[in-house]
Design a protein that fits this description.
Layout: H1 3-18, E1 27-33, H2 37-49, E2 55-60, H3 62-71, H4 74-78, H5 83-94, E3 97-102, H6 114-127, H7 129-137, E4 142-146, H8 150-156, H9 162-176, H10 184-205, E5 209-214, E6 217-222, E7 233-235, E8 241-243, E9 251-253, E10 260-265, E11 270-272, E12 275-285, E13 288-296, H11 298-305, E14 314-319, H12 325-328, H13 336-340, E15 345-349, H14 364-369, E16 378-382, E17 389-393, E18 399-404, E19 407-408
Parallel strand pairs: 1-2, 1-3, 3-4
Antiparallel strand pairs: 5-6, 5-17, 6-10, 7-8, 9-14, 10-12, 11-12, 12-13, 14-15, 15-16, 17-18, 18-19
Helix pairs in contact: 1-2, 1-10, 5-7, 8-9
Length: 412
């Protein structure tokens, strides 16, 4: 099968499984780099074949972003014209679909002024609230996918020759996104069914807390009453199913924002807005990060924690077995979407209201009172490995094994 045929299959998975585009819906493709144009065009074809009313991409040029950081005034760095977020708001209000396509090298801002990066990151984060609100509230179908770029491939596959890297990287994306089979949509339906069995099991348990143990990690995460474990397939308020991440290997829920205590060590690098944070530890007390340290990128970790008053609290906790295909590839992608689906992870910042029974009907104040977290940040960081054990605390205070050495203890 040639590259074009594989790309078409990948696009079909994104349109039919990812956003599950409905006839007469429009779709906004947000922030694809220019190198992603072949994928954007394939998605456009698949979307119109599915009956799309309108397909609109808003491209992102990293070189223009870099030039602004190099030569822009202080007013320019702190400004945001809101064009992309206004489009997100419009599409969201109409009940259309949102698709995030990324693929930039995770360290593409390396060497630039950290203070300017901080100011621009703060402006972009604060302006992105329409997107955060849309994807955490159940208003729209949305999905996040990746398109390889040369700079990213150079970083991920340095052992290969420059000419070999992009073809090899695309093959990995097709395979790990389950888009390389004869009938990838059916393959995805089977995969999502298996994930659903796992989340149904955890929902029946209704653990009061999770306990994580690994080298450098001893963390207890309380779970609020009425928490809901979710998996790859989600549903909008209007009843349309979609898959928020392509690929996905996780089951996840929300922590109680005030009941996270202990220390956790990262196991994979974290990309934060074009800068890498590596080998970091966080200490939590009563839900909040009270100490943060990193071998590399500590200032960017502190920038993330200072986005707003709730960025130091957590919004998601996710379980992924070490045997997941992405983990078993042995590749570090330096990318949240791929790396989080290779590893147990936690998110700083906002919770998904769908992760609590009746949460989508609660006001922000009511949701917070019930244990949820509202923030302009949602930043996943990886903590899992083959050395991690996870236990669940039952409602009567007993402890049960959920994972041992990174693998499920219950074969469902």
């Amino acid at each position: 099968m040639n590259f074009e045929a594989k790309l078409e299959k990948y696009a079909q998975v994104i349109v039919r499984v990812g956003v599950n585009l409905q006839p007469d819906q429009s779709i906004l493709m947000w922030n694809p780099p220019y190198e992603a144009a072949p994928l954007v065009r394939a998605i456009t074809q698949a979307a119109y074949q599915a009956g799309a009313k309108l397909v609109t991409p808003i491209y992102f040029d990293e070189q223009i972003h870099i030039l602004r950081l190099k030569y822009g005034s202080d007013e320019s760095i702190a400004a945001n014209d809101h064009v992309a977020m206004d489009a997100v708001q419009k599409f969201s209000d109409r009940g259309d679909a949102l698709l995030s396509i990324q693929g930039l090298a995770p360290d593409y801002l390396a060497g630039l002024d950290p203070e300017k990066i901080k100011k621009m990151g703060q402006a972009n984060t604060h302006s992105s609230s329409p997107y955060i609100e849309a994807v955490t509230s159940g208003k729209v179908q949305w999905s996040a996918v990746r398109s390889p770029t040369q700079a990213w491939a150079d970083m991920v596959l340095p052992a290969l020759s420059p000419k070999e890297r992009m073809p090899a990287f695309w093959e990995m994306v097709f395979q790990l996104s389950r888009a390389d089979g004869d009938d990838p949509v059916s393959d995805w339906n089977e995969h999502l069914s298996k994930l659903a069995i796992r989340k149904d099991y955890l929902n029946a348990k209704q653990y009061a807390a999770l306990r994580y143990s690994a080298p450098g990690t001893d963390l207890t995460v309380g779970l609020p009453a009425g928490h809901i474990w979710e998996s790859g397939s989600d549903r909008t308020k209007t009843g349309i199913t979609y898959t928020a991440n392509i690929p996905t290997e996780e089951v996840f829920t929300m922590p109680h924002r005030l009941q996270v205590d202990g220390e956790v060590r990262s196991t994979k690098p974290l990309d934060y807005g074009g800068m890498l944070i590596e080998d970091f530890t966080l200490r939590f007390e009563k839900g909040a990060v009270v100490h943060a340290a990193a071998e590399k990128g500590e200032q960017y970790l502190n920038y993330a924690l200072a986005v707003d008053e709730n960025a130091r609290f957590t919004g998601e906790v996710a379980l992924v077995p070490n045997s997941s295909p992405i983990s078993q590839s042995g590749v570090i992608f330096y990318d949240g979407l791929f790396d989080e689906n290779a590893s147990n992870h936690i998110a700083l910042g906002s919770s998904y209201k769908s992760s609590m029974s009746g949460g989508e009907e609660l006001s922000d104040k009511e949701f917070t009172a019930a244990g949820g977290n509202i923030s302009k940040l949602h930043l996943d960081f990886m903590i899992g490995s083959g050395a991690m054990d996870v236990d669940g605390t039952t409602q009567d205070g007993n402890s049960e094994p959920i994972m041992r050495s990174g693998e499920w203890t219950q074969d469902l």
